[in-house]
């Protein structure tokens, strides 16, 4: 039985005794709060929220009546808050790729992005050597594109971008010709020399991304790429030549430095 402690001289440090009026007031407030939470959940039509609201109602009702809520009720009430926070976080996240997926996409675009106009050395993946110019193997003194040490390549090669195609200018001291495939660049095994820049298809090259490198495909055929002669081992002095494009051939993969 509950009694009222109305004496003015009551010990302030002694046990507190709730009056019926205070219990009733606390219960009314708690039940009103629980009803509001439950009403909001029902209006939203969320079954999970309904369960959480019921748990909160029981929790607050027990508290208002002076009873200790059970461990299960306390955990459920707390868990509802965590689930609501997770739902809010999920709703706040925009649709689309996750940050990691976005990073991977950006990386892929970076690898496949074509370079702008500039001076680059073209290094062959198979040999680690770069394109330069030298004597035609077994020729009559004509100069052609060959493999050589990347530290001493000459002349500078200026790759002039035109959309997804390039002309490769060769800056000699008194002349700036363009890298040109022999005989129109339509047959495999043809060497690559240089001639006056006229915008010919045999002077136009497409960069085809392959991993972190490129195939250099002649616009004259669309199926022939820069490599070396089939009989060559990709060593210094070997002539650069056209071969049927094969992305799996390291002799056809070039990195622009």
Automatic annotation (TrEMBL):
Domain of life of the organism encoding this protein: Bacteria
One Pfam short name: Ricin_B_lectin
Polar residues: compositionally biased ranges: 99-112
InterPro entries: Ricin_B-like_lectins, Ricin_B_lectin, TAT_signal
Start and end residues of each stretch annotated as Disordered: 65-116
Residue ranges of domain Ricin B lectin in the record: 177-256
Compositionally biased region (Low complexity): 65-77
Name this polypeptide is given: Ricin B lectin domain-containing protein
